Amino acid sequence: GDGGAGVSAAMSSLDVNGAVLPPSTRPDGLYLCQRIGCSATYAPDKNPEGCCRHHAGAPVFHDGSKKWSCCGAKSHDFATFMELPGCEVGRHTQQKPPKPAAPPKAAAPPIPLSNEAREKVAAAAAAPASAASSASTKDSCVRCKQGFFCSDHAGSAEAQAAYVAPKPKPKPAPPVSAADPHAEQVCRNKGCGNKFKEADNKEDACLYHPGPPIFHERQKGWSCCNKICYDFDEFMNIPPCTKGRHNPNPDSEQQEYAKKVPK
What we know:
The protein is α+β, with helices and mostly antiparallel strands. The protein is 22% helix and 16% strand. The strands form six sheets. Strands 4-5-6 form a three-stranded antiparallel sheet. Strand 1 (31-32) and strand 2 (41-42) form a beta hairpin. The protein is extended and about 75 Å long. The model is unreliable at 3-10 (pLDDT under 50).
């Protein structure tokens, strides 16, 4: 009997691929499933086949549309896209899915140049470099004009160290929900998703992104905090940039934010 219990305990500390699980970093000793589309917490000894529903493929972003490569499920709204149920089932794991390989870029065939074109290229290469740099002065730099830090036009390392980012103007708190203040609700602010009770809600209870996500070609990021990356996992781990109250219906606040963003 004791021998069987020892074998069971040893197996429960192994991942689905047979690797030894590292110690849990959570206070409750549970693990967070690393499969895309799952994000459930689980105990290694309670991880039967079929308990994990996930997406085996990678997300694909193109022209405002968001689609799962494995099952083709898609949506234009990011929140709805992230709630699309997984198309495969299995066991929870700590093994992250492999990153999709970038498609090879086809080399463009060389374009033959005429004698006149060659002369223009040679003349442009011989022009002084100052003519090109003059268009990138601090006065004409869009980033400098908007008050953001610009490493191209910082005078020195001391100037970079002394730079203080401008503080955003405080925005009014979202309206308090008219629901039962002791009823459990789910915060729908982007980047939060925690459960809360309005009676316990505070001005700094929620960490979230007030702006919409940005998907352009292979770039992914948040419009509110100027964070851009290319990997989906890195995008999902970008920390929220704003504190406020939990909000079960942030659509009105998102619309107000969109009105303030310059087109």
